[in-house]
Specification:
By secondary structure, the chain is of the alpha/beta class. The protein folds into 2 domains: 295 residues, NAD(P)-binding Rossmann-like Domain (Rossmann fold); 108 residues, Dihydrodipicolinate Reductase, domain 2 (2-Layer Sandwich). The chain contains 16 helices and 11 strands. The strands form 2 sheets. Strands 3-2-1-4-5-6-11 form a 7-stranded parallel β-sheet, with helices on both faces. The chain has a 4-stranded mixed β-sheet with strand order 8-7-9-10. The longest helix has 21 residues. It starts with 12 loop residues before the first strand and ends in a 15-residue tail after the last helix. 47% of the residues are buried.
């Protein structure tokens, strides 16, 4: 297998983050702490993960960062937009995710991250208000301002390349309309201030127009529309999304494949969450919750495939609830009750109480997406990067195929893509040793 020609990761890599809240500041502070040697990048595949090459007998298992040419953490430069004026240090303190002692150790680096004014409308995130906002007559004008921000950031920070990852809030639920069908209809809708064009779409458009890889960390419709997918292909830009796979859905993509592998039936899966951070406040609005609910509900159907296993999974009951509870802060609790059945139909139950830290789980995802999307761009890859489905609740996919949600299959696809890029044999777990 021939190796793909990958451009060297030389120079500075700018990381642009719409939304400088809990996730972004936890990510930035974490990277700076790792660079100083005061913390470890736990949860990051690019920093700690390994990859097996060839046969098991060859014992070739390098770290991923030593196998593929990824940008180094020292090359990263951070910037972003937010509706609040707080710099990275002030925002990290208010988020309350990390201990103040740790934040203070990277204070100079965090204070350098000052938010650019945001393209924002409360129509799409009803429970948030802010003052650091852009003004323009049309959404088209706002998009041009974002493009100008990108150019300015790249020049002022002497960046060679850029990547953008949406870390902002969940917007209200939107369905695809004619405005999203083509690049022409999308640009026309921006100029006409069409309600179908959400602020997150303006960031995605600005990134893709600027030739910058883009990932959507929220369940918003955003880049998952024909117009922006086509624009990404034309501009040779890698894109991915949507919705970081962190707490409860992470557990579902681990447990559900196990149930199907052992052919255990499912009658119902009830999920409820309590969280008190800005995400919880936003999701307290029914329209924003609808967007998140759609993202969470799709996982089990695709993994369990009830059409193939009707005796086990036909019409299982699936309910998801999210409750805003301010005292909990960023320490989210995801509680699940599974009613399953086994041999001869006898009922059993599984209870899961995951007391997780939402931004702690999301931060390494942001890091991996930044480095892998940059790798994809330098490898000449464009359009939807399905191999990055590992990181998302609702993975983007080609319209003619269904999305892959099984986390173990997702990981195999990711690592096989890295093997392919470097000209190594793909791991299929097929062998002739039994016949030698």
């Amino acid at each position: 297998m021939s190796q793909i020609n990958i451009a060297d990761p030389k120079g500075r890599l700018g990381v642009l983050l719409p939304g400088l809240g809990a996730v972004s500041t936890t990510f930035i502070a974490g990277v700076e702490a790792v660079k100083k040697g005061i913390a470890r990048p736990i949860g990051s595949l690019t920093q700690m993960g390994t990859i097996r090459l060839g046969k098991r007998t060859e014992k070739r298992v390098p770290k991923i960062k030593d196998f593929v040419p990824l940008a180094n953490l020292d090359q990263l430069v951070f910037g972003g937009w937010d509706i609040f004026f707080d710099n990275g240090y002030e925002s990290a303190l208010k988020a309350g995710v990390l201990e103040k002692g740790l934040i203070d150790q990277v204070r100079p680096e965090l204070e350098k991250v000052k938010p650019m004014s945001a393209a924002f409308s409360q129509k799409y995130v009803k429970n948030l208000t802010g003052e650091n906002l852009k003004n323009a007559k049309t959404k088209w004008d706002l998009a041009q301002q974002l493009i100008d921000d990108i150019k300015k950031f790249k020049t002022e920070n002497k960046c060679d390349r850029l990547v953008m990852v949406w870390c902002g809030s969940t917007e209200i639920f939107l369905k695809q309309t004619a405005a999203h069908a083509t690049i022409e209809s999308f640009e026309k809708a921006m100029k006409e201030n069409d309600a179908a064009i959400a602020p997150s779409m303006l960031y995605a458009y600005a990134a893709i127009k600027s030739g910058i890889p883009y990932a959507n960390g929220a369940p918003n419709l955003t880049v998952d529309i024909p117009a922006l997918v086509d624009l990404a292909r034309i501009n040779n830009v890698p894109i991915g999304g949507k919705d970081f796979k962190t707490g409860q859905t992470l557990m579902k993509t681990i447990l559900a494949p196990g149930l199907k592998a052992r052919l255990l039936g499912l009658k119902g899966w009830f999920s409820t969450n309590i969280l008190g951070n800005r995400d919880g406040e936003v999701l307290d609005d029914p329209d924003s919750f609808k967007t998140k609910e759609e993202s969470k509900l799709s996982v089990l159907e695709y993994i369990l495939q009830p059409d193939l296993y009707p005796e086990l999974y036909h019409k299982f009951y699936h309910k998801v609830r999210i409750n805003y509870y301010p005292p909990r802060g960023d320490n989210k609790e995801g509680w699940d009750n599974l009613d399953i059945f086994g041999w001869l139909g006898y009922p059993m139950q599984i209870k899961v109480d995951f007391l997780c830290r939402d931004s702690i789980l999301a931060a390494p995802i942001v890091l991996d997406l930044v480095l892998f999307l940059d790798l994809a761009a330098r490898s000449g890859m464009k359009g939807i990067q399905e191999w990055l489905s590992f990181y998302f609740k609702s993975p983007m996919h080609a319209p003619e195929i269904y999305p892959e949600h099984d986390i173990f299959i997702q990981l195999m696809k990711l690592k096989n893509t890295l093997r392919y890029l470097q000209g190594e044999d793909l791991i299929t777990h097929l062998g002739l040793e039994y016949y030698d």
